[in-house]
Write a structure and sequence with these properties.
0% strand; 78 residues; mainly alpha; globular; binds zinc ion
Length: 78
Amino acid sequence: MDCERASHRMYYYLDGELTVWRRWVITRHLNRCPPCAQGYDFEIDLRQVIAMRCRDTVPPDLKRRVADALGLSATDDA
Ligand SMILES: [Zn+2]
């Protein structure tokens, strides 16, 4: 599996819409490919922020990590 396919399927992976076999293929790719693994971690962080934002209880460090990854500055952090 190449990186483009891996990152595309990551969304389905996170949504739990893949078969066991496909999840395993992606997991194996992530284990071998640090850039994709990093993107996967970011997706998880981002989903946490989105989920928490509904309750307005996003931890500052998590918000900062996502802002950094997006190239933004967490100005409302102080
Ligand atoms: Zn990759």
